[in-house]
Every structure is written in structure tokens, then in C-alpha cells.
Sequence to fold (556 residues):
Amino acid sequence: MRGLLGLLLCLTWGALALAQERITNFDIDIAVERSGDILITETLDLISTGDNIKRGIFRELPVRYTFMGVSQTQKYERLSIQRDGRDAPVSVSRNGNALVWRIGQEDVFLDPGPHQYVIRYRVENAVRRHGDRDELYWNATGTYWDFPIEAAQATVRFPDDATVTITKVATGRFGSEDSNALIDTDRNVVTFTTTGALPRNAGMTISAAIAPGVIAPLSAAQKRALFWIRYGALIMLSVGGLGLLLFYYRQWSRVGRDPQKPPVFARYGPPKDETGQDYSPAAVHYIHHKGLRGTDALSAMLMQLGGQDVLDIQADKKVTTIRQLPAPITGDDAQTLVHLLMAKRGGTLVLDGETDTPFHKALAKFHGIIAKKYGPKYYRYNLGWAVLGFLGSLALTFAVVFSPVAKNSLGVLGLFIALLVMNALFVFLLPAPTRYGAQISSEIDGFKLYLETAEKKRINTADPLGTRPPAMTVKLYERFLPYAMALGVEKPWTKQFETSMPVEAKAYRPNYAHGNAFKSGGSPVNFSRSLGKTLTAGVAAAAPVSQSSGSGFSCG
Fold:
């Protein structure tokens, strides 16, 4: 009884094993021709149960492959396909990167059981010429099968006068580096045999190489195509980069060269414009810094207006009140600022920590006026040429990226980096002062030199006009302090005042500034710091919510 039961179990398991759909043997014979083409004969022995294999099978072959980082198209010529010794009907379609041969008829079902398919086809120019070797790299079985492959064998036959020098095999799913196969080499023939079954969607990829000279060399057209694949990116980036460099150099020579700057020597007052008026602190700040930075220019202007008895500033802990006084306003920039701040406020501006959109709009308008008045006439950024060069670089980059050329080399990476550096370099080099701007900048630098070095020693070197530094007085200190603040040298200027006139400096209190915010010690330095800090806080607090993270009177 037990023997009968064991026999029944064996028969059951045997039937189940026979019923499983699978490829029992997959034999691939690859004849490598001297032209570089390969002739492939695939013999598949399989078991069908009507589950996945109902009307026939699908043979899927990759259409595109990557060589030297460039996608290439594989060309196939179908020679014959037979099933069980008879020609089989075939329909052709595409499935992503796969060329699909559907072997069978829609209205004809296969009988369950074993079947044999023999597929013959040619692949054009499948041998890859690397220069030091000619290689056949081939996905022998494919990885598209929905059922396992019990055994697979691939035989590669090179021409008789060839000798196989390099072999490699990989088994498993796509991207696997497993090597569960044996390799047997006999001079010009190499055979790859799996050592275990391949699960569904797994396959065997082989590689075999011989020395150059057996396979016919590439044609002139193929050599040109391969040369372009290898070096096209380097050529495009080199030629395009050189052209861009010449373009940038020409524009830099034409508009980006700095005019010869006059020598800088100490000047004992701010420069004057064509009308003979002193440049305002805001103008000096903008020309020197090539834009407005923080609230220094605003603080300097308000400080100057206070010293001219035009404004009165009351700064307490949380509220700053600025009132216009009935005194004449000197200078176009000062008149513009007072008009923008006070015209619609009845002569009183209150910064109390609340959002004040009109105030910020007034500052933005003043910024625009200063930028327009002291911008292009003094300094040109030449951004148009920089943008044109950047667009050229972008077009060159797109041309390289989307061309069928190898891009995965250190040379290509280096040229891309050089292109980026060149654009950044000329964005820095193209801006340049005008001749008039260079002259005024030199005068401002000389004035700044006087303000920041006065504390170290009395400047006793006469300038070309024969003038000498004026003696320090409270009036002189107060007159130049706004300029010192605008140029960022209020500390050394104040230090000179304290050194030259210690009694007056200790007692110094500007009559236009009041409130708790200015009671931070007896030093004029503390006063200038307090004024700047108070105005910065007031401007930031008054900013609309969308702007409060940045200064409303920042850079240009």
C-alpha cells in the first residue's frame, strides 16, 4: 500500500513538473563575419501548457544600445523562423526599446507539450571596434521571457584566422553582474554554458573579443561616424568655447576695458558736479559702491539734512519721528528725498514699527532716481553682452547634450567647467566705469582717503592745486560726517575729531537729534551708530510683509 502511494506521489509531481511552461534548452549559434555582421541561429526547445504560450511565442530584441555613452540603433534582418520544422507566420511590432517578432497566428492554438523554434537572423555591424580589440557584446537570450530557461548555451564562431583573447559572461536579470556560466575557448570558437536555470525575466549576456585585423576595418563613413561619436563633444565645446571667448574678448576690449583712472591723492572735500554743486552723500555712496547698500545712504542724507536744520529727528525706543523744519534745502538729491518722504505727510514722518507701504514706495522711487542719475553715466554693467554670451553658451550646451556624441569623459567635463568659468569671469570683467565716472570715482577715493587717514596723521602733502588739509572744527566734522557714513569711514573720521578736539567732541550733541535712542554714551561714534541702527530698524519694521526680510533701501 505504501509503495502504491509513493508511486502515485511521484507520478503527480512528475506531471506537475511536465506541466510547467519553460524553455528546456536555449541554444544560440553566432557566426561572426569578416564584415562585422553576425549571423545568429537560435534553437529553443520549450514546453507549452496553454497558459502563457497559447498561440506561439514572442521574440523580443533590443533596438537601441549604448556605445561610448551614445545611444545607437541595432539593425536586424530576419532570415527565417520555423516551428517544429515548418515555417511559422510572423508579425512585427515595437514595445519600448524592443523589436517584437510575434511568432504564431491569432486564430491557431498550440497543442500542449514540447515544441521547437528555430530563429535565424542577421545583425548589421554588431562587432564593436575599440582600436585595441574587436568585440562582440551580445545579450544572447534576452531578458524578456515570462518563464524560466532550464539551460542555455551560446557559441560564438569567429573567422578561422582569429584567436579569442578576452571573454566575459553575465547571467541574471537586467543589470546583474552574476556569472553563473562556464566558458570554453578553442582558438576562434568560444562557448558559454549556464550552470543553472535562469528564472523568468533573466538571461545571459556574453562578450568575446579578438585582436584587430581579422574583422574588416570600418568604412570611411563609419570611421567618420565613430570619430564624431568619440570626439564630437570635445570638438563642439572647443570650437564653440573658442568662438565664445573671442566674442567676449572683443566686447571686453570694446566696452569693458576700464579707462585710465586718474591718480588718487587726498582731497579735502566731496567732488562737484557740472553745476558746481557738491555731490550728495547718496550720490557719493552710489558711485563708490556701484549701488545702494543697506540704509547708509539714507542715514547719511537724513544726517546732512538735520545738520542743515531741514529735519528734526526724535528717536525713542520704538518710535522714530522725523519732522521737516522751515529751512531752505540745498541740493537736488536732498530736495527730491524730502519731497518724496514729506509731501503727503504734512511734514512729519513716523516710523513706529507698523507697516508703511507708502514710505517704502517713496524709498524705492528715490532709489530709482539715484540709480538713473548716477548709474549709466558713471558705470556701465554691459549686461546685454553678458546675456548674449550666456545664451550662446546655453545653445552650445544643448547642442552637445542632445547630439549623438560621447559625453562621459574628463575632457568634456573639463570643457563644461571652463565654459562656466569663462561666463562667470566675463560677467565680472565686462562692467566698466565711463571716463567721466572714472574721474569722479578718483575724486571720491581721494576724499575717502582724507576721511579715513586723518586720524593717523595730518596729511601734509599738498595736492596738485597746492591746497592743504583744513583745520578740524566742529562745523567741518559735522559737514563731512554724512559723507564719512556714506563711505563707511565714519569711525576714523570721528576718531580724528575726538583726537583733535577732545573737549568739543565729548560735549558734542547734534541739535537735530533727540530721544532715548541717542543716549548711548558721550562719543560721536555712538551717535552715528545709533542713528544708522535706528533708521535701519525703522525701515525694516515699516516694510510690507513680503519685503520685511530684506532692506527696503538695499543695493542697486
In short: Residues 281-382+435-547 form one domain. The chain has 13 helices and 23 strands.
